[in-house]
Amino acid sequence: GKQSVTTSFPSTGIGKQLKMAARMIKVSLAEGTERSAFMTASYGYDTHSAAEDANGPILARLMGEVDGALGAFVAEMKLLGIWDKVVIMSISDFGRALKGNSGAGTDHAWGGNNMLLGGGLNGSKIFGEYPPTLVLGEGQDIGHGRLVPTMGWEGIWSPVFQWFGVDQASMDEVLPNKKNFPSSAIIPAH
Predict the structure, then answer these.
(1) I want to staple 14 with a disulfide (CB 3.0 to 4.6 A). Which of 42, 48, 53, 71 is the partner?
(2) Within its chain, how far is the Cα of 125 from the centroid?
(3) What per-residue confidence (pLDDT) applies to 113?
């Protein structure tokens, strides 16, 4: 029916959520919905107390789950013929420190990585600056392995909001801190 998907999704938490998003997108297409937005959540990245557990490195396992779920989701969007109209954005409220802590884990930090994916994107680009060194206390490290980000949220949200239809006249209201960043810190929409 209009709610079923063709692709086999992994039975992980993120796999189930992306399968539901794919089903909802399929229904939205059938109903003629102009635009839709969905949010999924994946937990367990806060490796403060340990970077590994009985099953091995935590982040490697979690990223494998995300990879499998995204692979299925992209395949389904391609089958629906709409991959070029889909944007996926990863977000997190914190990064991880480079330096381990006394609990065999890592503490919260500022800088992190985010991804934008979509068939219509001019992709394969890295924005921001890779740290010139990962030596503790040097470069972007402000102490204890906490890196200062080189881009603000405005850099990644601006092109997404433009794609979603926010006009330039409204952008300062939607992203009030955008004016505090140079244009080089904003990912271009095209």
Answers:
(1) 42
(2) 14
(3) 86
What integer best gives the mean pLDDT of the chain? 92
125-156 per-position pLDDT tens digit: 888 888 889 999 999 999 999 999 888 889 99
Place of tokens 């396992």: 61
Largest CA distance in the chain: 57
Confidence (pTM): 0.90
Cα–Cα dist 71/143, whole Å = 37
Residue type, 89: M
Beta bridge partners of 53: 56
Using the structure block, give the residue that is written with the tokens 């954005």: 89
